[in-house]
Specification:
Layout lengths: L16 H7 L4 H29 L10 H37 L7 H19 L1
Helix pairs in contact: 2-3, 2-4, 3-4
Length: 130
């Protein structure tokens, strides 16, 4: 015989609550995952720019990008990979996700400030991409 246990109605998520939970959560695990996902999106943008650079360097004749555009793409690639990929993922994702576990606390300090920094991170990177 199979034993089925039913969850109480209060433990079941409401319709749309997962979106609200992932959007405006103060839980350090959710904020860390949000930093990681945001960082990976900027990593993909930096990867596209890296592909453009490698395509330009594939032949000795500069025929894919002009010199000015190549310099812009190279600068954008470096800026995105350092300031929008490495720094948010190492400090934001791993710091928010792992440090509370390592110190044994239930949550990280100043969760509202961490959530605000995450919400400021994505819009601050979009002018870089334009």
């Amino acid at each position: 015989m199979e034993s089925t246990t039913e969850l109480p109605v209060s433990l079941l998520p409401n319709h749309g609550s997962w979106l609200r939970y992932l959007s405006f959560s103060l839980d350090h695990k959710v904020v860390g995952i949000q930093y990681l996902v945001t960082g990976f999106l900027f990593y993909l943008v930096g990867g596209v720019l890296a592909g453009m650079i490698r395509t330009e360097l594939a032949t000795p004749i500069s025929d894919y990008l002009s010199r000015e555009v190549y310099n812009e793409v190279l600068t954008m690639h470096g800026t995105i990979m350092i300031f929008l990929w490495i720094v948010p993922v190492v400090n934001g994702a791993f710091g928010n996700y792992l440090i509370p576990f390592l110190r044994g606390g239930p949550r990280h300090g100043f969760p509202q400030a961490q959530c605000r920094c995450l919400l400021d991170d994505s819009p601050s990177g979009t002018p870089t991409d334009c």
